[in-house]
Records
---
Amino acid sequence: MTNADARDFSLDTELEETRGWDEDDTDLLETEDAIEDDFESGYADEPDPDEPDPEELTTGQLDLAERHELRRVAGLRTDLEDITEVEYRQLRLERVVLVGVWTDGTVQDAENSMTELALLAETAGSEVLDAIYQRRQKPDPATYIGRGKVEGLKEIVAATGADTVICDGELAPSQLRNLEDRLKVKVVDRTALILDIFAQHAKSKEGQAQVELAQLTYLKQRLRGWGGNLSRQVGGRAAGGVGIGGRGPGETKIETDRRRINTRIAKLRRELREMKGTRDTKRQERRRHQIPAVAIAGYTNAGKSSLLNRLTDAGVLVEDALFATLDPTTRRTTTADGRVYTMSDTVGFVRHLPHQLVEAFRSTLEEVADADLILHVVDGSHPDPEGQIAAVREVFAEIGADQVPELVVINKADAADPMVLARLQQREPHCVVVSAKTGEGITEARSVVEGELPRPGVEFSALLPYERGDLINRLHQHGEIDSVEHTADGTIVRGRANEDLAGELAAYALV
């Protein structure tokens, strides 16, 4: 049966009715693209005002960003405990317990020492779980803290789940071995902790070689303390059925390791001697031109790099951490009257600085001993700034810098107690108070530094022809000009200069 209302179907007619559909879609798409091209968000393409331009970042800011690229955020953790997880999922901080022995001083001194040890441990990349210290006349020769305290420490380690114990002192190899045997966890002393921080922060080739030399010197006497299964020596029936090739006196693995360490130490010392030659050449060049040298030294995290940035716009790395910068930085700067001098930032000091580091970094520390002026930076906000001053001056005496003129710079005035600042100013009359963070007192400090620089020793009075403008420029850079008078015959200059420059001026001297 057919529908009477149905019309005849024609394919050509149906196609004709759909002919304009594609053109309508194309017009719609072109309209949408035009709208998108004309659309402006108002903020998407504008630079973030809080984000610095990558091209304007200083070297220190780039180094700090690189150091923070892989850093675990404390307090954020997951429940993943399966050891089969991917390695980067297992990134975690060492869990440590601090142990100290208080032999002299006050209780506050002992607590300050433990606080500093905690900061060192956190800088090295660990999580401090607990800290204990005890009063003794001297550390126990066998276990550092005594047999009874070792049992109590073992309970603390088991209760907290710590995997490392850090002692606030330098342990003998026997003390290290005894503590590890009884505690069943890794034991590290203060020296090894500082060496580990230096190994993390050393960047230059010389700095890395110096740190490795100090680590090997420390490790050479403590090979036995890192485990008891180091012997390869078998012989005769003691070979235990090893058979042919396994009998005989043999050689212990400790002896092999010690021999390799001695070989490596000798190689590092040769390399450091070559690097020292380069450093000495640069220093002799400055001496030949009689350019004054200023060295910035002081306790670690006192603000030495920040002060260098304020005084010279050096742009070196600045971080609120212990031993953030190790490699020395020297910058050329000028006084208000144009005299040229250099300013160097050196490695920071700390209480009980390991002797291995002092020996390894001796070529670097010579910058302090050979300086014409030392800026001794002190953290005015520290609980014990007097103790820091004493510790730094002990290192000065050890490296032969105790006779160099010293200007004490009390830093962090914005965070320090005014009573503490007044006490330090009374104790150290030759000092200035600054804040490298806010810029407070920097102008005064710069003027004091310029006044403390060694002055040229030869007075002169010369009539310089106008074509000898080069001598005028050198007098501004390396001498002191008291007066300048322009005449028809030339420029009359009076002042002070070093011997070499004064000799060149003798041909133009006024009678």
Note: The first strand starts at residue 94 and ends at 102.
---
Amino acid sequence: MKAFRCGDVVPGCTREFTGADRAEILAQVAEHARADHHVEVDAGLVQAVEANLHDR
């Protein structure tokens, strides 16, 4: 199980995500990024998320 806290990349954001693997987390984060931060996923965002993934 993997976990990611958006606040580790976007200060002030309190959303947290859990998933079975990297791909599941990235799918959730992509939807959140578009809906709540009005940004599209790019290589930099993927890199930031991967750098902040934690085992849960």
Note: The two ends are 5 Å apart (CA to CA).
---
Amino acid sequence: MLSIIIAAVPIHGHVTPLLAVARHFAERGDRVRFLTGARFAEVVEATGAEHVPLPAEADFDDRMDFNTVFPERAELKGAKATAHDIEAIFARPGRPHHDAIMTLHAEEPADVLLTDPAFAGGAFLLGHELGQRPPIVVCGVVPPLIVSRDTAPYGTGITPLAGPVGRLRNALLHTVASRTVFARARRMCDELNQEIHGRPLPFSLLDWPRHAEALVQFTVPEFEYPRSDAPANLHFAGPISASGSRAPLPPWWDELDCARRVVHVTQGTIANRDYRQIIAPTLEALADEDLLVIVATGGRPVDTLPPLPSNARAAEFLPYDELLPRTDVFVTNGGYGGVQYALRYGVPIVTSSGKEDKPEVAARVAWSGVGRRINSETPSTAAVGRAVHAVLDQPRYRQAAQHVAQRMAQFPGMPYLASVVDQLAADGARPGGGAAG
């Protein structure tokens, strides 16, 4: 039996995939402590893990409107928006993250720590020797936070450009971003690491998963940029878990068996207050067409939606394992988990591009050929209509999505993540044992 700590920032899209991870290890008999926000206590305990609340200064309710809490954030886009979130939402809680893990490890030594990439405390934990801290597995629930000569800065949503010209472009963009956009966040991280270890953080916060013992990405290489300088600790497990499959069938479910093509649109469970992001323009663009438009509100009451046209149906949650095989196009605002879920079933995608990791997700949708990206957080009705019809009418998008689905079916998923954890625990238990590569 292993002693495992799982740690995640209190954001639904980061916690949910790790609930399945917690359940897997708890069911096989491991001792699992799950450090995350107070609002997730019930769902954590339901997995068989022990919920440990984050310190108050690191906890928040992800259902709040961040643009209200941080008014300056509303006007930011791309890398500037990413930099703001890194500083205000992720880097600042890094010290209480670090302290909470060190306290848990001192109370009961952990064999392995699993974190999401946004758990900034992981970066500061790396300043301790193994033994003082557990080996760290970063669970890739968002596009990889890895600085590379082959990719543009994280958050820009810029797709790769091959060859020397692309590398020169990336080098210039990284230099500009580090000196301007990310400069404040870097200074904050240096100060925090100085407090803990007496020296600045020796790497960028956006590159910290490179230095963990393992980075296990919850997708397949076909949906991720190739990197000639990828770290040896990078693994692809394929999809780890599904979410939402237990939702009840709505009363209109039988209509899905009609001959009409189905377009499913959602804004996930967090960024779903402003339906202009993708739901409203999709309803308007496809109104009265010979399509069935299915809306999931992600938990918000259905009556908060704009008026539904005659060809639209809605529910708060839907059973995705039954819906997606019937879906012709998945329309989203770019949540990583939802996109991976759709691709498991070979469903092509239309995505807008907003804040957080969404520009990076949208860029990968376009780069991999599995769908169309609209470069706007609140796209126009016309733009959504053009993108949906392009994906419906051009077989190449579905073919690319089905290819990714076939590759996903070949990857072991949870058993692979468990093998990485078990190897790290075994190496750490040996005299002189170190991290697995």
Note: Residues 278 and 408 are 27 Å apart (CA to CA).
